[in-house]
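Marked as duplicate of an earlier ticket. Keeping the data here for the record.
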Amino acid sequence: MNGGVDPLPCGTDRDALVSLAVDGGDRALAAHAAGCPHCAPVLARARAQWADVGAAAAAPVATPPGLADRALAAVRSVRGTGGVVELAQEGGALLVADGVVALLARTAAVEFLSAGGGHLRSVTTGPGTVELGLSIRFGEVVGQLAERLRAFVTAELAPHLGARVPRVDVRVEDVTYPPSG
């Protein structure tokens, strides 16, 4: 019928039949396919497969435990809590939003963790604190990793915040296991 890339013996393109199964728009093709011994089985198979796709799409998917908390923590770290860090300067003060402090801490933590050991899951700020939420690899010595991360992030924040560097806390939120195999 349309001589496409993969025509059936009658000339109808298989892709056109799949499109017909999905959105049903072409009335002339539908009329042809209904009576064609080549098109009818291809269209029936495409409709059955599309029904499977629709059923899979309609099936409810459970939200993984903790996902909402992690998503909200990530959003809060970008927005911050509305607080500021005040940096004294000659002639006045510089106010740095805690969301900026969170972004600086996130950048430093991601850089540190890129060498391995864990994955940053969240950054939250509070009065005088930054909390880093981690997922660590099984087998990591938690205390050593946390202390090295804390020292690195504190050192990275110091040039930006001077004496007003917040306390950096590390919270382990999850442990990941190496792939088996």
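See parent ticket for discussion. Residues 39-58 form the longest helix (20 residues).
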